[in-house]
């Protein structure tokens, strides 16, 4: 009946030293549709594919604004993501109230990392079934963090999580050197190209299913940051057209035609 | 053996010697600060072109008694800001410890990131003061925070025991708000004139104001601390002596005290 005796709760190790509940939570992240994040010196971009449960329904939101300077992309259980994003909003607000400044992105990510980790160490709790890409700007410039249900957080130059995200990561790895000095538009195009890589064969980027989020750091000769802003619908049309059938399209996509949407 | 309830759960006197009751928390009612006890007098500060000058004397009075003569009432924060304390000295020491803890946790969570600016620090302190006054247990201080804000411009602001905040090109607490503030306002009536003021001129205004305070404030002293904050950091001198005093005017003062003529 059970796969094994060691996956009933998140506090029990298997004899091999694994905690199955955490691994299952990591699987939940892989069920979610893909999100991509890239950071350059001046900008940080999040791109996501939205899904609709059925033809007649709306698309599920993938990107959230946390604070003026931080946004996040989710892959996995949306309801768990909302809990985390709500928590992050409160922390950012509280920090602004007590210190009068934007919360440093690394401190914010440390907080959710800690929150998620305690869930894996207390009986009766479960890990969050969601992975996040947290993008933000602070005094130190642009940041992109990956967050996993285990509580692991890591700062990245570029990353992708979610279904078939390996394809996107391969694209990112191949173009890694171009990101650091890329312009805002180039960075968004790279993000969308990475997204395209991970699409199943007869699916493509549309104004309905694509979301983009951008934030810009404070640079010399510019007062203040470019706040994190979400772009949906017709706001992303030009970007989608700019990457349509461009070079670097799916030379590695060997059409592992399994549709992971469910 | 002692079987009375007050001996329960304690080391036995016959084995370990008499119990030192000072380790036990007394069961007295919680006490809130009702009035300051050992106090520091005025803190003065003025903005200039590239930064801020702040000063306070080194005296801690016990009532009208000049009780402690080497109490430093300016403290640096993160090497970029200075906090000046007027009011209760024990509460100052509490806030001082609290700020050290804040520095520690800030450095721990972001060792290589910029620290809290003076503006951030002032906001934090005002929230701390307001929280304590809301517990009806205020920290009996009037605090000036001097440094640079997030944009690198000179920053000077005050918070008091109620958590009230305000800001001006020059600020003074306590007696200084009556005696020194008008002098400083002559040199920096508004932000524009403060932005014209040179560092030397600002220091001179502060020194002159400290002297006037020593002449007329009976809780003041002629040894003081002075700090200059610029983008290059904090230059804090903690054992300055008031120079060029002239008490000639004292002869002409009549009308109070034990004077009979």
From TrEMBL, chain A:
The keyword Cytoplasm applies. It holds the Pfam family Proteasome_A_N. PROSITE patterns: PROTEASOME_ALPHA_1 (PS00388), PROTEASOME_ALPHA_2 (PS51475). Coiled coil: none annotated. Its main location: cytoplasm. It is found in: Cytoplasm; Nucleus. Keywords: Cytoplasm, Nucleus, Proteasome. Residues 6-28 form the Proteasome alpha-type subunits domain. The 26S proteasome consists of a 20S proteasome core and two 19S regulatory subunits. Belongs to the peptidase T1A family. This is Proteasome subunit alpha type.
UniProtKB/TrEMBL annotation, chain B:
It is found in: Cytoplasm; Nucleus. The keyword RNA-binding does not apply. Non-catalytic component of the proteasome. This is Proteasome subunit beta. Its main location: cytoplasm. PANTHER family: METALLOPROTEASE TLDD, PROTEASOME SUBUNIT BETA. Belongs to the peptidase T1B family. It comes from Bionectria ochroleuca.
């Amino acid at each position: 009946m059970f796969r094994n005796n060691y996956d009933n709760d998140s506090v029990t190790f298997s004899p091999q030293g694994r905690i199955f509940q955490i691994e299952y939570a990591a699987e939940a992240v892989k069920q979610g549709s893909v999100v991509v994040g890239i950071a350059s010196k001046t900008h940080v971009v999040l791109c996501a594919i939205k899904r609709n449960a059925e033809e007649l329904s709306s698309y599920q939101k993938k990107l959230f604004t946390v604070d003026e300077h931080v946004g996040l992309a989710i892959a996995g259980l949306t309801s768990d993501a909302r809990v985390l994003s709500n928590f992050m909003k409160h922390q950012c607000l509280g920090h602004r109230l007590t210190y009068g400044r934007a919360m440093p992105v690394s401190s914010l990510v440390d907080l959710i990392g800690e929150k998620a980790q305690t869930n894996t160490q207390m009986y009766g709790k479960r890990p969050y079934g969601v992975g996040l890409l947290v993008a933000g700007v602070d005094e130190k410039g642009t940041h992109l963090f990956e967050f996993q249900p285990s509580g692991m957080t890591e700062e990245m130059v570029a990353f992708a999580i979610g279904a078939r995200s390996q394809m996107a990561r391969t694209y990112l790895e191949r173009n890694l050197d171009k990101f650091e000095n890329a312009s805002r538009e180039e960075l968004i195009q790279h993000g969308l190209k990475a997204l395209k890589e991970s699409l199943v064969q007869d699916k493509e980027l549309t104004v309905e299913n694509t979301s983009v989020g951008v934030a810009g750091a404070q640079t010399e000769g510019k007062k203040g940051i470019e706040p994190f802003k979400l772009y949906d619908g017709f706001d992303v049309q030009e970007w989608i057209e700019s990457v349509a059938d461009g070079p670097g399209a799916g030379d590695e996509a060997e059409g592992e035609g399994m549709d992971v949407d469910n | 053996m002692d079987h009375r309830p007050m001996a329960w759960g304690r080391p036995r006197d016959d084995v370990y010697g008499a119990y030192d009751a000072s380790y036990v928390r007394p069961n007295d009612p919680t006490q809130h600060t009702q009035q300051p006890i050992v106090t520091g007098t005025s803190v003065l500060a003025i903005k200039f072109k590239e930064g801020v000058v702040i000063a306070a004397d080194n005296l801690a009075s016990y009532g009208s008694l000049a009780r402690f003569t080497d109490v430093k009432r300016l403290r640096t924060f993160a090497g970029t800001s200075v906090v000046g304390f007027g009011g209760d000295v024990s509460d100052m020491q509490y806030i001082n410890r609290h700020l050290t803890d804040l520095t520690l946790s800030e450095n721990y969570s972001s060792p290589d990131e910029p620290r809290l600016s003076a503006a951030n620090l002032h906001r934090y302190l005002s929230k701390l003061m307001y929280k304590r006054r809301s517990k009806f247990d205020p920290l009996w201080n009037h605090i000036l925070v001097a440094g640079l804000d997030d944009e690198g411009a000179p920053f000077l602001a005050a918070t008091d025991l109620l958590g009230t905040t305000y800001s001006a090109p020059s600020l003074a607490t306590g007696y200084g708000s009556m005696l020194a503030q008008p002098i400083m306002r002559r040199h920096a009536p508004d932000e524009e004139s403060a932005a014209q003021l040179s560092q030397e001129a600002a220091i001179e205004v502060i020194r002159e104001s400290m002297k006037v305070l020593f002449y007329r404030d009976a809780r003041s002293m002629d040894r003081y601390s002075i700090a200059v904050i610029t983008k290059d950091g904090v230059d804090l001198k903690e054992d300055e002596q008031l120079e060029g005093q002239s008490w000639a005017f004292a002869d002409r003062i009549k009308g109070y005290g034990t004077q009979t003529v």
